[in-house]
Amino acid sequence: MKVEIYSDIACPWCYVGKSRFERALAAFPQGGAVEVVYRPFQLDPEAPSEPRPHREVLAAKYGPQAVAMDDRLARLGAAEGLAFDFDSVLENNSLLAHRVLRFALDQYGPAVQSRLKGRLMTGHFAEGLDIGDPAQLTEAAVAAGLDRAEVTAFLDGDALLDEVTADIEQARDLGITAVPTFVFEGKWAVQGGQETSTFLQVLEQVARETAGEEQPGAVSAGGDTDAGGACADGVCEVK
């Protein structure tokens, strides 16, 4: 089974969804045979290429409700074992980070790409990592197992820019406007940072339906329903 996960590093629900899905995968009997690939998506493709404090950016967009949005996600994250330190979060354009993730996939494979994705998300949400800074991206990549010289050379040019841009456009063509979106076997789509138990049910259902050659569509799944604001129902939407 192949699962393609469309997500953005700067999306808190993508961080939650990654954690929950990985726990479901660990509990899925055929989990070892599931290939997981991360596909790029940008919630704010027009974001400037310079770091900005998250609190200021969110307040400018959503006003007083911004603090409540962050507080709820911090509480939810703590329950999932994930740290959110929104006072340290820096917002930046995520395109460069997506290019590094594509480089990791092409050169090292899905497992290393997933490890790097986790390192970038933890760094972004808990450690003040600037996802637009080549030097910090290099350190994150090395920590995930990539070769420093290879990453440095890659970031010195614009390799894979066209490929990543095409992937982002493909997501739009597929009708994806909110993340995370999980696409199973290129047929079934599930949106949102679902509960671990729901992801496990989806994996089991897709396995059955793949064997039965069912028609493509959306696999039934419930969602978190009181996140509020731009990141509601377990997803973050393009604004």
TrEMBL record:
Top-level division of the source organism's lineage: Bacteria
Pfam families assigned: DSBA (PF01323)
Annotated ranges, domain DSBA-like thioredoxin: 3-203
Alphabetic keyword roster: Isomerase
InterPro entries per UniProt: DSBA-like_thioredoxin_dom, Thioredoxin-like_sf
GO molecular function: isomerase activity; oxidoreductase activity
PANTHER family: GLUTATHIONE S-TRANSFERASE KAPPA, THIOREDOXIN SUPERFAMILY PROTEIN
The protein's name: Predicted dithiol-disulfide isomerase, DsbA family
Native source organism of the sequence: Actinacidiphila yanglinensis
